[in-house]
Amino acid sequence: MSLQNKINDNLVRYMELIPGTSAFIDARTPGSDLKDNFCIIGAGVAESSRQHVHIRETAGFNIGAAGQPPGIKNSLHSHRTAELFVVFRGQFRFYWGNDGEHEAVLSHGDVISIPTNLFRGFEVVGRDYGFMFSVLGGDDSGGGVIWHPNVIKDSQGHGLYLKADGTLVDTIDGDQVPSESELMPLLTEEELATFDSYTAQEMMPFVALRKDYVPTGGDFDTENVKQYALTGHPLAEYDFQVKSEDEVSIMAYELSEGGSIPQHSRPEKQVLINFDGDTEVVLTHKGEQASVTLTRGDVFNVPEGASYSLTNLRGNSLTYCILGSDKPTKL
Fold first, then answer.
1. Tens digit of each residue's pLDDT (9 = 90 or more) over 1-26
2. Are residues 193 and 232 in the same domain?
3. Dist CA 143 CA 140 (whole Å)
4. How many Å is the Cα radius of gyration of the chain?
């Protein structure tokens, strides 16, 4: 396979994303319907076998996305592995706690790493359709979603049933109604009491607001380039703004007009999300070279063992780099 074909197989254009509308148990619950769920790299925690997955192969983490109109909620749930979000369009009200009693509103370029063992949900506020990228740690994402019992109760009567093995049964699409013994058991009050709670102030160390990005000591001594270390392990070589043990980390590269990052490689798995502007990626792999231009919202799964450079082609560009380690090696 040529390097250009390999690039094409590892590129997901924002305008070509294919949503799933019944990926989870709450997909038809009034107030939680009208959601688009995207599996970009890896199947993540999607419960439906009918969910489209753009790139199935993972290397330590999954990349997905959520899109929804104003007023539509993603219901209270928890994860056993890391869940990080980067808001791309619109404004999202995140709420968390066993009753969703705490909240914060995030917008374009804001990043949050939500702790495990904590119920969380989100809804779009304002007037615009909201879209954000998600990162899930681990190849299998820890065995799926843990739903608040009220979410499972509210889903009843809408044709979706969650089985104890984490698979979704859709009777509207022709699946058989499962027996009572096959269904996911509801969490008890005692089990609910084991989940954590954070005040809004306690959650702020897990948030990097776009307006507060702090340039870090760069790996590249290059003009017109700002490098940001956003989320990663507190013991990492980089001074990450959000210090959390997520098995993944997030860098960002902001290139002003004429800015570029030279050819380089990392030992960690990398995925690029082009957030703003147009960015040219020149890839070198096994002696072969090829290029691709990333436009706003495109996702590129960097082939393992490849090196690449980034060049800003228009205005200011901002590109996130998701790394398959929360303690990446400094270049």
1. 799 999 999 999 999 999 987 768 88
2. no
3. 6
4. 20
**Range list of H helices, the chain:** 3-9, 149-155, 189-192, 200-203
- Strands 299-301, 242-243: pairing is unpaired
Q: How far apart are CA 51 and CA 169, in angstroms?
A: 13
For residues 145 and 221, state if they share a domain: no
Instruction: List CB contacts of 286: < 8 A, sequence separation 6 or more.
Output: 3, 305
Which of 66, 71, 1 has the alpha carbon at shortest distance from 35?
Answer: 66
Shared domain for 296 and 219, answered yes or no, is yes
Q: Which two tokens stand for residue 120?
A: 């969380």
Range of the domain at 234: 213-323
Phi then psi for 190, rounded to 5 degrees? -65, -40
Cα distances from 33 to residues 69, 152, 275, in angstroms, run: 10, 14, 27
Round to whole Å and give the CA distance between 136 and 281: 25
In total, the chain counts a number of residues equal to: 331
Take residue 45 and report the two structure tokens written for it. Answer: 């925690």
DSSP 3-state of 155: helix
CA 141 to CA 247: how far, in whole Å? 11
- pTM exceeds 0.85: yes
| Torsion over CA: 154, 125, 17, 262 (sign) | negative
Look at residues 183, 206, 229 and tell me which one is the last residue of a structural domain: 206
pLDDT in tens, 253-274: 999 988 999 999 999 999 999 9
Judgement on whether residues 227 and 164 belong to the same structural domain of the protein: no
C-alpha closest to that of 268 among 318, 222, 232, 218: 232
CATH number, domain at 237?
Answer: 2.60.120.10
